[in-house]
């Protein structure tokens, strides 16, 4: 059995929900695990695991666009506030005597792994941008180069890079391996149906869509507005675990940002997806491009009635493409992790 430190990015819930599946698996195999994280992931994981709070990066959005200066200010403030806790975190790392560090795009633990000469494994989707060949339109080349530099700066020097993704890209380095999307147990257990409503997930303040939705003779369920109310054909819901899973499983289609977690869950459940990338996040742009390329949905960089008309008119076509998608569980990734732990423990 191994002592494993697991670093989890605390930005949003995608990293946390993905990491929980691996953490549950590691614990079930008898390994001793200590989680280093922050932000939303801290509150999501600390009920089930031994968790250490560390400084972390938080991204700020305005009007579906990444706000660089607000992000810089809030991150600097948070780092300064938690500086006094760094010595304690370093001691927890050392006293745990890890055999291995796994990081889901969390730079603090990856830096400590290098400093203390502990083997490091990266398990995320971000390194698909750096370790595989990605094709993007020319206008996004500079954004892709910038993202690659940021990713390489935050997490580097891993013994292995395990990448989860719904699309295949050629691998550029021998220590990199591509796996199917990592899915939550709750998603794998769902039995999806198609009811007559569209699920809308707005976590980046793209409220401009609401006025267009009102013009349709369709029912829409909207999450992300932090309220429970009805406005004609639109029902706003606050997040609840059971309610969200039920609405996700039974919707006709989904409209949301282009984050990897929700897109992969939608594809697994056979739900056509209209992806609206957060501006200045080339990772989301790439997700949306490949989603459309594979015929599972449509990308858009804004909202108009024409865009929505186009998406709704193609739902049956997307359904046919989604039927061709080969579903997978997490066992292939589990086997790879078992092999790596055996190598280093």
Structural class: alpha/beta
Low-confidence stretches: none
Give the integer mean of the pLDDT values: 90
Q: How many β-strand runs?
A: 16
Q: How would you describe the shape? A: globular
Q: Give a quick account of the main beta sheet: strands, pairing sense, barrel closure.
A: 7 strands, parallel
Overall tally of domains? 2
Percent of sequence in beta strands: 15-25%
Within the largest sheet, what's the order of strands? 3-2-1-6-7-8-9
CATH homology-level superfamily of the largest domain = Glycogen Phosphorylase B
CATH architecture of the largest domain: 3-Layer(aba) Sandwich
CATH class of the largest domain: Alpha Beta
CATH topology assignment of the largest domain: Rossmann fold
Helix content: 40-55%
Please report the number of helical segments: 15
The rounded distance between the terminal residues' Cα atoms is 7 Å
Radius of gyration from the alpha-carbon trace, in angstroms: 20 Å
Describe this structure in words.
The model has no long low-confidence stretch (mean pLDDT 90). With 345 residues, this protein is an alpha/beta fold. It has two domains: 3-182 and 330-344, Rossmann fold (3-Layer(aba) Sandwich); 186-322, Rossmann fold (3-Layer(aba) Sandwich), CATH 3.40.50.2000. Helix 1 runs parallel beside helix 2. The protein contains 15 helices and 16 strands.
């Amino acid at each position: 059995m191994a002592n494993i430190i697991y670093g989890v990015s605390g930005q949003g819930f995608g990293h946390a929900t993905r990491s929980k599946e691996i953490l549950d698996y590691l614990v079930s195999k008898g390994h001793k695990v200590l989680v280093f994280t922050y932000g939303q992931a801290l509150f999501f994981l600390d009920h089930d695991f031994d968790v250490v709070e560390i400084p972390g990066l938080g991204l700020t959005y305005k009007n579906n666009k990444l706000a660089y200066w607000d992000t810089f200010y809030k991150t600097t403030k948070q780092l300064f506030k938690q500086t006094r806790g760094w010595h304690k975190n370093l001691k927890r790392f050392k006293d745990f005597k890890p055999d291995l560090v796994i990081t889901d795009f969390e730079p603090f633990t990856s830096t400590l792994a290098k400093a203390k000469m502990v083997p490091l494994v990266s398990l995320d989707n971000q390194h698909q941008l750096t370790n595989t060949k990605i094709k993007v339109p020319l206008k996004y080349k500079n954004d892709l180069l910038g993202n690659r530099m940021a990713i390489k700066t935050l997490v580097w020097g891993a013994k292995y890079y395990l990448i989860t993704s719904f699309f295949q890209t050629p691998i550029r380095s021998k220590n990199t391996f591509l796996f199917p999307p990592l899915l939550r147990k709750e998603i794998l257990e769902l039995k999806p149906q198609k009811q007559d409503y569209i699920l809308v997930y707005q976590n980046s303040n793209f409220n401009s869509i609401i006025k267009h939705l009102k013009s349709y003779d369709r029912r829409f369920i909207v999450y992300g507005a932090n309220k429970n109310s009805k406005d004609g054909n639109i029902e706003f819901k606050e997040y609840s675990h059971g309610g969200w899973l039920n609405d996700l499983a039974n919707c006709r289609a989904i409209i949301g940002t282009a984050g990897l977690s929700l897109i992969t869950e939608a594809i697994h459940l056979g739900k056509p997806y209209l992806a609206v990338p957060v501006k200045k996040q080339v990772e989301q742009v790439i997700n949306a491009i490949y989603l459309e390329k594979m015929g599972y949905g449509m990308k858009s960089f804004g909202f108009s009635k024409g865009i929505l008309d186009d998406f709704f008119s193609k739902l049956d076509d997307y359904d046919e493409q989604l039927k061709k998608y080969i579903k997978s569980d997490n066992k292939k990734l589990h086997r790879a992790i078992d092999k790596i732990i055996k190598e280093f423990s």
